[in-house]
Write a structure and sequence with these properties.
Blueprint lengths: L5 H4 L7 H6 L1 H13 L3 H10 L10 H5 L2 H5 L3 E5 L5 E5 L23 H9 L13 H9 L11 E2 L1 H5 L9 H11 L6 E6 L12 H7 L7 E5 L3 H9 L4 E7 L2 H7 L4 H15 L5 E7 L12 H10 L1
Parallel strand pairs: 3-4, 4-5, 5-6, 6-7
Antiparallel strand pairs: 1-2
């Protein structure tokens, strides 16, 4: 076994969950003894070599200094009775107009999105950003809710959005096996990877090998995220079904995530559309931070509409 306890690995009584449950204390002691003798990096390397999913365990100290938590004001500092500060992770990302709590549960399925905002935020101390600015619009939304959709289509993004931040590189064959399994569950769209720079996201450096290695199924579209023209050309060469483009409504978020301002993203969109013209590949664009930016706070509705029209 990984921890060098062949006696445990070969014990038939531990071959099933029932047996392991009965000997949980003994197994925990053996694992603890093994980990205490090794540095963290050596433990992670040994588990990685054995193809055991593992990652760096975040401590309270790590969380308190995590730049993403800090940027979203998800770390709250309180003063203890003895006068010393105490940092506590928050529950919700803190945007500029985010209230301290939610008053009630979600609305009934099918109600208008403005009505959803009113119900979700109505009993808080601050109004939701950009929701129901005119009373007449509020009344109209309440009187004429949007009908329930006939169907809801799920775009599974875990193979891209999840694996890109893993502590270790997930082998290409494991990614392919996982995505192939997802394609048998009834999903119609799966975002398999991102054709971005390997230096920017090393975990997705095998994007082309993943897409070309997939078992393509009828009725299941394989989508990918691309940030620029070079990524588009690589994606088209792999015969993807859909290309997803993304940009930010706020300049700070765009520069932090894409190294581009919103205007530069629009220029990139135009170049990507030109390159993909005639390919038959569907192009989808997403506008991030329209309901608030973790760096700038509330994003003006006019700004979001302006960028949407520009796209």
């Amino acid at each position: 076994g990984v921890i060098g306890r062949e006696d445990l690995a070969n014990d038939p009584a531990l071959a099933h969950n029932d047996g392991r449950s009965q000997q949980a204390a003994m197994i925990d002691d053996a694992i603890q003894a093994w980990t205490e003798e090794r540095p963290r990096d050596a433990i992670l390397q040994a588990l990685d070599d054995a193809r055991v999913p593992a990652g760096y365990p975040y401590t309270a100290e790590d969380i308190a200094h995590d730049p993403h938590y800090l940027a979203r004001e998800m770390i709250q500092t309180f003063t203890r009775p003895n006068g010393k500060p105490l940092k506590v992770p928050g529950v919700l990302p803190k945007l500029s107009a985010t209230p301290g709590r939610l008053g009630n549960g979600g609305p009934t399925l099918g109600q208008h999105k403005v009505m959803m905002c009113l119900m979700s935020w109505g009993s808080t101390t601050k109004p939701a950003p950009n929701c129901a600015k005119r009373a007449s619009y509020k009344e109209s939304s309440m009187s004429h809710p949007t009908p329930c959709p006939v169907k809801v289509e799920i775009n599974e993004v875990a193979p891209r959005d999840g694996l890109q931040i893993e502590a270790r590189f997930v082998p290409t064959e494991e990614k392919i096996r996982w995505i192939d399994a997802l394609s048998t569950t009834g999903l119609r769209r799966i975002e398999a990877t991102s054709f971005t720079s390997p230096k920017a996201i090393p975990n997705l450096r095998d994007a082309a090998d993943v897409v070309t290695g997939l078992q393509r199924r009828e009725g299941v579209d394989i989508t990918v995220l691309v940030p620029n023209v070079k990524g588009t050309e690589r994606a088209l060469a792999c015969q993807v079904d859909e290309i997803n483009l993304v940009m930010s409504a706020s300049e700070s978020h765009g520069l932090a995530n894409l190294r581009m301002t919103p205007e530069q993203s629009l220029e990139q969109f135009a170049a990507i559309l030109e390159v993909s013209q005639g390919s038959g590949v569907f192009i989808n664009a997403s506008l991030s931070t329209t309901f608030g930016c973790p760096f700038e706070g509330e994003v003006p509705e006019a700004r979001a509409l302006e960028l949407t029209k520009g796209a």
